């Protein structure tokens, strides 16, 4: 991230204490370095959605080596984006990132826009990603709210153990109220609060003794009450349609041309589930039929002939 040290480092506020902690303890992640381009930050934010940092770092480095600019990616096919995405998970993100690159070239001359409304208008860029790019790439003052930020703010300010499964408008308001007025300091504070939730104020094993705001944390003061509802369990993967989709995509990624239906039939024994997973890939714009008997990654070659 850019060198955006500002008022947050000296103010004796929540943001100031967290920002000071961040400067001393933040992980050395490549997209946080001062020379990182807005495009590289955008790619990192898309890759980090529901994917651990340890898996993202090598994928991000390989992606930027191949496509260092939006124009470079826009000049490739969506099929190549899916191949490069590999097993990072949720491959629809690769297609949306390709669509985003095309839009940046067509609408903004190949430069990632710095205005929030323009970022929000890009394909696949939602509330979180747009604000993250505006803050971390351009040093602007916006509440950047992910699961980690919601948990920190909910615990430290409201004294609640859990912020719920989705981001609400109230979460944006509560987070913005904690940010310094100066944009660069606010951007730093946004990164700091997120990092605190990722490595200290974690969901299952918070390390309160290492927290820079322990003395003022409302959740800590109330005895760290547990969530009232049932704990969410990790989603099962083995045997699900998601696993079958991954197996089908694996075959299609490695292919150099259309893959006959018979080859895909070998991936999974359950005909009904396999057909459902394949149809889902087509519906999601990841795979397209070629004639009546074959399939390929979307855009992997000349336009597919229309069946019938």
Q: Describe it for me?
A:
The chain is mostly helical. It has two domains: 7-221, Hypothetical protein, domain 2 (Endonuclease III, domain 1, Orthogonal Bundle), CATH 1.10.340.30; 241-297, Winged helix-like DNA-binding domain superfamily/Winged helix DNA-binding domain (Arc Repressor Mutant, subunit A), CATH 1.10.10. The protein contains 15 helices and three strands. It has a three-stranded antiparallel β-sheet. β2 and β3 form a beta hairpin. α2 (38-47) packs antiparallel against α8 (127-136) and α9 crosses α11. Mean pLDDT is 91; it is low at 1-11. It catalyses: Hydrolyzes free adenine bases from 7,8-dihydro-8-oxoguanine:adenine mismatched double-stranded DNA, leaving an apurinic site. GO terms for molecular function: 4 iron, 4 sulfur cluster binding; 8-oxo-7,8-dihydroguanine DNA N-glycosylase activity; adenine/guanine mispair binding; metal ion binding; oxidized purine DNA binding; purine-specific mismatch base pair DNA N-glycosylase activity. Its EC number is 3.2.2.31. InterPro entries: DNA_glycosylase, Endonuclease-III-like_CS2, Endonuclease3_FeS-loop_motif, Endouclease-III_FeS-bd_BS, HhH-GPD_domain, HhH_base_excis_C, HhH_motif, MIG/MutY.
């Amino acid at each position: 991230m850019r060198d955006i040290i500002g008022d947050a480092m000296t103010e004796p506020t929540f943001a100031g204490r967290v920002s000071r902690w961040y400067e001393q303890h933040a992980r050395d992640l490549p997209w946080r370095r001062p020379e990182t381009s807005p495009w590289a930050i955008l790619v990192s934010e898309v890759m980090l959605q529901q994917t651990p940092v340890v898996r993202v770092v090598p994928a991000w480095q390989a992606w930027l080596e191949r496509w260092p600019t939006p124009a470079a990616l826009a000049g490739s096919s969506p099929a190549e984006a899916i191949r490069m995405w590999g097993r990072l998970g949720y491959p629809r993100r690769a297609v949306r990132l390709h669509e985003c690159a095309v839009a940046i070239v067509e609408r903004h001359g190949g430069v990632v826009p710095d205005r929030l409304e323009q970022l929000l208008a890009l394909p696949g860029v939602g509330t979180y990603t747009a604000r993250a790019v505006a803050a971390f790439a351009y040093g602007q003052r916006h509440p950047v709210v992910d699961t980690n930020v919601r948990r920190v703010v909910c615990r430290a300010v409201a004294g609640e153990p859990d912020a719920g499964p989705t981001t609400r408008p109230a979460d944006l308001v509560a987070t913005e109220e904690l940010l310094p007025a100066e944009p660069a300091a606010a951007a730093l504070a946004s990164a700091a609060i997120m990092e605190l939730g990722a490595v200290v104020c974690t969901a299952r094993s918070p390390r309160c003794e290492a927290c820079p705001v322990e003395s003022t944390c409302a959740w800590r003061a109330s005895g760290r009450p547990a969530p009232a509802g049932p704990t969410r369990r990790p989603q099962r993967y083995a045997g699900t349609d998601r696993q079958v989709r991954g197996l089908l995509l694996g075959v299609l990624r490695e292919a150099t041309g259309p893959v006959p239906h018979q080859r895909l039939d070998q991936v999974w024994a359950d005909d009904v589930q396999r057909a459902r997973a394949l149809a889902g890939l087509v519906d999601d714009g990841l795979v397209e039929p070629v004639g009546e008997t074959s399939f390929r990654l979307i855009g992997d070659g000349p336009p597919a002939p229309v069946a019938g």
